[in-house]
């Protein structure tokens, strides 16, 4: 299960930041979900609740999710375009030589410790 691996990764990062700041609890963690990451927000939320509530430090810590749009770069003409709208073919020059620049992962943006 993809989402479970991601929440363990988020929990590790949050735990490190909390301990480094001498915090005893964490109010919230904000993550950006890539538009083409394949992560299902509802499943991620469920997995987070289950994982976080197992330990005192993360109990009741809220997971805030924001969407990061997917952007593809054309290697031939340098155009950046929306991946979801146009896929792998550059809408400016028709080139198939493109690669995904952002929007495929999960990035932690903010951790609010108490
Ligand atoms: Zn192009």
UniProtKB/TrEMBL annotation:
<dbReference type="Pfam" id="PF01155">
    <property type="entry name" value="HypA"/>
</dbReference>
<dbReference type="GO" id="GO:0016151">
    <property type="term" value="F:nickel cation binding"/>
</dbReference>
<dbReference type="GO" id="GO:0051604">
    <property type="term" value="P:protein maturation"/>
</dbReference>
<protein>
    <recommendedName>
        <fullName>Hydrogenase maturation factor HypA</fullName>
    </recommendedName>
</protein>
<dbReference type="GO" id="GO:0008270">
    <property type="term" value="F:zinc ion binding"/>
</dbReference>
<keyword id="KW-0862">Zinc</keyword>
<dbReference type="InterPro" id="IPR000688">
    <property type="entry name" value="HypA/HybF"/>
</dbReference>
<keyword id="KW-0479">Metal-binding</keyword>
<keyword id="KW-0533">Nickel</keyword>
